[in-house]
Write a structure and sequence with these properties.
Structural class of chain B: alpha/beta
Oligomer: heterotrimer
Number of strands of chain B: 10
Strand order of the largest sheet of chain C: 2-1-7-5-6
Family (chain A): Belongs to the CTU2/NCS2 family.
CATH topology of the largest domain in chain B: Rossmann fold
Radius of gyration of chain C: 13 Å
GO biological process, one term (chain A): tRNA wobble position uridine thiolation
Strand content of chain B: 5-15%
Largest sheet of chain B: 6 strands, mixed
CATH superfamily of chain C: Beta-grasp domain
Helix content of chain C: 10-25%
CATH topology of chain C: Ubiquitin-like (UB roll)
Distance between the termini of chain B: 54 Å
Number of domains of chain B: 2
Shape of chain C: globular
Distance between the termini of chain C: 45 Å
Number of helices of chain B: 14
Organism (chain A): Pyxicephalus adspersus
Keywords (chain A): Cytoplasm, tRNA processing
CATH class of chain C: Alpha Beta
Strand content of chain C: 25-35%
CATH superfamily of the largest domain in chain B: HUPs
Order of helices and strands of chain B: EEHEHEHEHHHEHHEEHHHEEHHH
Shape of chain B: globular
Order of helices and strands of chain C: EEHEEEEE
Helix content of chain B: 40-55%
Pfam family, one (chain A): CTU2
Number of helices of chain C: 1
CATH class of the largest domain in chain B: Alpha Beta
CATH architecture of the largest domain in chain B: 3-Layer(aba) Sandwich
Chains: A alpha/beta, B alpha/beta, C mainly beta
Strand order of the largest sheet of chain B: 5-4-3-6-8-7
CATH architecture of chain C: Roll
Structural class of chain C: mainly beta
Largest sheet of chain C: 5 strands, mixed
Chain lengths: 487, 341, 101
């Protein structure tokens, strides 16, 4: 043990015992080192902390506070905001329970003095259609290196300090609090209860998922959409998510089982740039849940326990839950399991076709927004599954309704209306949406009873992309080259 | 309540396909099962006309079904292949004798030539003798390594161009999981490849790669194929058992999970700067190896010298000593001798 | 004979759901011939406090993997785990690390 004087309170690995103060030092240092090593968070950047109320989120917020505080040796230099999403409707919680939870959360967040936003998942039904389109134009151009950016930021600060103005970052934070104070007031008075029809629509959508696995996947996808939306509309270019090492090892295993092998580095790596303009970072990924729980306990970091979809579920209720039980049990017998899995994932990267700019929107999955992994050749598991489907069904059943035909049905004379409220009969059947999805999203969708319960921004975007695809097919022979389009 | 087959819609359905959940009649099931394997073979271009193909036959359900289906498809689609059954006798009394009898029966039933290679003739050791020396903890390592080489050597003796084995979808999914859990990045990359084998070795392929184990059993059952179904009497590898249990639980939750895992495995991409072992040849027997001595030679050396732990765990430095025929020090000998049953 | 022992038990991380949502419990273990250790405490908790789904808390004779145990704010692995002998006024904390984040 490091200091060899105080008595140990915690054992991390075999032979690695810590006393209270050494542990604190170790914990705080890891956070700094994580951000410092991966130089993706630039000074002065607005960073949204995705807060779930759980132990990892709270530890992360606390570390951000520590890092930004005046007397920190190597101060962190970004501008944080916090987002909490109330998902109680999905778990069939009563509004009273949800309100109670939200007040608890609000108290904790108020104490941080960072600007915060508390939303309900029902807000999904108010998202604009353009949400799912990748904003290629807005990717910030990072011309200089990270060091240059820090240098110039420090230079700015020094100049301002000499002017007798307080720290630039503090100033900006204060401005934000002032900006948000009106928002905060309206929220703390009483949390605005979402429209009953939205709550009902949300419940219906989740009830249309036949398996818990699909429900959990859907929740994850939709939650990310909402986070992305909030980040974009409030000018946050980064989102920090509090997943711990343990949680990520479990996610790795369940994602492999769900068919997301192509996207493992994005789903579990330090930085996830699938959206382009907003980058997700995971600064807690080197911490095990044990370390986080101990830290929170020893240093009184509060946390709120919110029941999730699979709380108290039995062992085999969903793939995610099964993976969690499996890894936890295996870890008990083979203590290097989590770290081995974690290290394996670091050796993976997204396949080469993803790092180049995507040619057009069609190449991205409608739901998870990763580059489609369904363009595999005929000698692949994907094709084999399609073949099996074909062979087991009567040939005549498998007819693909072309979008063109269905358009003719609803609009007169083939005149397509791109965005018409009158076009309400769901033109998009399962067939059409499926082509726009990656392998694992396809499997998730298969577990849904019907597609029309999905929020309108998804359905409209699906329609839009399908139409573009049809149009493109028609004019393909006339296009001169495969130039990148912003579809 | 009788329902009709979802494919032909005329006959009554007698089984539900584990792979897709469709209820189908016998004939449609046979057709679908065989067609899928045909598709696998054709899309991956596994064979060329005129090739001599060795089928790894253990007498178990996978290899029996493989042999049967290959024979059927070879005739139906004129692959133009010359098929031979190759079987390995590990020398496990009671277990292997029975399965070998099954293989001999297969030979007659399918009218295919058969070649049997034994550990005894190749290495001078039977599995029974090995277990006596090595114990029950690491015996599977020995058997796996030896069997792989035995199949290759048998094939070489016959002048075979390709070997096919009966690995099914469940096996591959299990291997993906296991390699992932153990952090074996090199194997993780290779294990979903349908054809494996590098320069100098006979390429091996897995035509049953996308066939579910349950469907293989159903096929064998309905076609009344003869196979031997007991597990090896020496206990199975503990770690693989975990992966297998997890896979079975997954399958119960979502039958497509097996294919989903294979899809994940096929789409994993390893960073370029990750160190991979370089493949060379064994200096003693010429087989491919990433070390100076191939695994089989190391294991054999251990057996012959009465050092059963040689080859289990990492003692690469000692390989040089062995190659040079130098004696090992006291401490090294002691480390390699201890066995736990 | 060992005197009765007073303990403060705490449940967190979601484990409190199995105990009617109550996080802190003051309990008194009755006097018995052998000294109390954590192994016996678990049995006692199962018989007297656990309201439901005991398999979510206990597995075999120890806690379910994923549940951390602290003895007076120190990792129980440093204190002998199941064999730690309980003392009067000890504080034992059970934190579940499953779910939430």
């Amino acid at each position: 043990m490091k200091c060899k004087e105080a008595s140990a309170v915690l054992i991390i690995r075999v032979g690695d015992a810590f006393c209270r103060s050494c542990f604190k030092e170790y914990f705080v240092h890891k956070f700094r080192a994580m951000l410092g090593k991966n130089r993706v968070v630039f000074p002065g950047e607005k960073v949204l902390l995705a807060y779930s109320g759980g132990p990892s989120s709270n530890a992360m917020v606390q570390q951000v506070q520590e890092g930004l505080s005046r007397d920190a040796p190597k101060k962190l230099r970004f501008i944080p905001g916090i987002l909490f999403i109330d998902e109680g409707a999905v778990c069939n919680q009563s509004w009273e329970d949800r309100e109670r939870t939200m007040s608890e959360i609000e108290n904790i967040l108020k104490a941080t003095s960072f600007p915060f936003h508390i939303l309900s998942l029902e807000q999904l039904f108010t998202l604009p259609q353009t949400m799912l389109q990748m904003n290629l134009a807005e990717i910030p151009k990072r011309d200089g290196s990270y060091k240059q950016a820090v240098g110039s930021f420090l230079g700015q600060q020094k100049a301002q300090a000499e002017d007798g103005v307080s720290d630039a970052a503090d100033r900006l934070t204060q401005i934000h609090i002032a900006d948000n104070s009106s928002v905060e007031c309206s929220q703390s008075a009483a949390f605005s209860r979402p429209a009953a029809e939205h709550t009902a629509a949300l419940r219906d959508m989740f009830n249309s998922a036949k398996t818990l696995t699909a429900k959990q996947e859907l929740l994850h996808l939709l939650r990310n959409h909402l986070i992305l939306h909030v980040a974009r509309t409030h000018g946050y270019s980064k989102v920090m998510s509090g997943e711990s090492c343990t949680r990520l090892a479990v996610r790795l295993l369940s994602n492999i089982s769900l068919g997301r092998g192509a996207f493992l580095p994005l789903d579990t790596g330090f930085s996830d740039n699938r959206y382009g303009d907003v980058v997700i970072v995971r600064p807690m990924r080197d911490y095990s849940l044990k370390e986080i729980s101990f830290y929170n306990r020893l240093f009184n970091v509060p946390s709120v326990f919110i029941p999730a979809l699979d709380t108290k579920a039995s062992g085999n209720s969903s793939i995610q839950h099964l993976s969690e039980s499996f890894i936890t049990k295996l870890q008990a017998d083979f203590p290097s399991t989590v770290s081995t899995v974690y290290r394996t994932s670091e050796k993976l990267h997204v396949s080469r076709t993803d790092t180049t700019q995507p040619k057009n929107q069609q190449d991205k999955c409608l739901l998870c927004m990763c580059t489609l992994d369904t363009h595999t050749g005929p000698a692949s598991a994907f094709f084999a599954t399609q073949k099996s489907q074909q062979l087991s069904e009567k040939k005549s059943l498998k007819n693909v309704p072309s979008a063109k035909d269905s358009e003719k049905q609803c609009c007169n004379g083939g005149q397509c209306c791109k965005e018409s409220a009158s076009c309400t009969n769901s033109v998009t059947g399962t067939q059409d949406i499926v082509h726009l999805l990656c392998y694992s999203c396809r499997v998730t969708i298969k577990d849904l009873n019907s597609m029309d319960k999905l929020p309108s921004y998804i359905l409209k975007e699906a329609e839009h992309r399908t139409r573009r695809m049809e149009m493109r097919k028609e004019i393909e022979e006339f296009l001169l080259d495969d130039h990148s389009e912003d579809i | 309540m009788p329902i009709n087959c979802s494919s032909c819609e005329t006959q009554r359905a007698v089984l539900r396909r584990p792979k897709t959940g469709h209820s189908v009649c016998k004939e449609c099931f046979f057709r679908a099962f065989e067609e899928e394997i045909h598709h696998t073979i054709v899309s991956a271009q596994l064979f060329q006309p005129g090739e001599k193909v060795g089928i790894g036959a253990s007498g178990g359900k996978d290899s029996t079904v493989l042999a049967h289906v290959l024979k059927v498809l070879n005739e139906r689609y004129n692959y133009g292949l010359e098929l031979i059954l190759v079987s390995v006798d590990e020398g496990i009394s009671g277990y292997r004798d029975d399965s070998l009898e099954t293989v001999k029966r297969n030979q007659q039933q399918y009218e295919l030539p058969l070649k049997i290679v034994s550990y005894q003739e190749l290495y001078g050791w039977t599995m029974d003798q090995i277990v006596k020396q090595v114990g029950l903890k690491n015996n599977c390592t020995f058997c796996g390594v030896f069997r792989r080489q035995a199949l290759d050597r048998g094939a070489m003796m016959l002048g075979v161009n390709k070997i096919c084995t009966g690995h099914n979808a469940d096996d591959i999914a299990e291997t993906v999981l296991m390699n992932f859990l153990r952090g074996d990045i090199a194997r993780l990359r290779r294990c979903t490849a349908i054809t494996t084998g590098s320069e100098g070795a006979i390429p091996r392929c897995k035509p049953l790669k996308y066939a579910y184990e349950k469907e293989i059993v159903l096929y064998a059952y309905f076609k009344k194929l003869d196979y031997f179904s007991t597990e090896c009497i020496y206990s199975p590898n503990a770690y693989r058992g975990h992966a297998r249990a997890f896979l079975k639980d997954l399958e119960a939750l979502r039958p497509s999970a097996i294919m989903d895992i294979i899809h994940s495995g096929e789409n994993l991409s390893v960073k370029e700067d990750v160190k991979m072992p370089v493949q060379g040849t064994c200096t003693r027997c010429g087989y491919i190896s990433s070390q100076g001595l191939c695994k089989a030679c190391v294991l054999l050396e251990g057996l012959n010298r009465g050092l059963p732990k040689l080859g289990i765990g990492k003692h690469h430095k000692l390989h040089h000593k062995l190659l040079a025929q130098e004696p090992l020090s006291e401490a090294e000998t002691r480390k390699l001798k201890s066995i736990d049953f | 004979m060992v005197a009765p022992i007073n303990l403060q038990l705490e449940f967190g991380g979601g484990a409190e759901l199995l105990f009617d949502g109550v996080k802190k419990h003051h309990v008194t273990l009755p006097s018995q011939s052998d000294p109390w250790d954590i192994k016996h405490l678990l049995v006692w908790i199962k018989d007297n406090l656990l309201k439901e789904r005991s398999e979510l808390f206990i597995q075999g004779d120890t806690v379910r993997p994923g549940i951390l145990v602290l003895v007076n704010d120190a990792d129980w692995e440093l204190m002998g785990e199941l064999d730690y002998k309980l003392q009067d006024q000890d504080n034992i904390v059970f934190i579940s690390t499953l779910h939430g984040g």
